[in-house]
Target: Sulfurtransferase
Amino acid sequence: MPIPERNNEGFLEDAWQWNEAIASKIASESNIDLDEKHWEIIWLLRDFYKEHEISPPSNRLFVKAVREILGEEKGNSIYLMQLFPGTPAKTACRIAGLPRPTNCL
Model:
């Protein structure tokens, strides 16, 4: 299955064309092998997007959203950086098929 059209940073042009197979392909481009911990965050992001029609706009707000839903253990920068290296919000949103967070470099 080919990956739908993406922008120059690898984000899907249409978040609704996303599925789990596409997420796995995008994750593999960043050498990330998705497991249940990743999927928990990915589904949280997809739900956030459905509710607010935006991606969490920054790493700080991404961490806060995870903390509010999943608790302190998972809602912290270290945990999220281990799952999604680099800029966690940006990496996780790309894998989740969502638009680029607005305040992420």
In short: The chain has a mean pLDDT of 91.
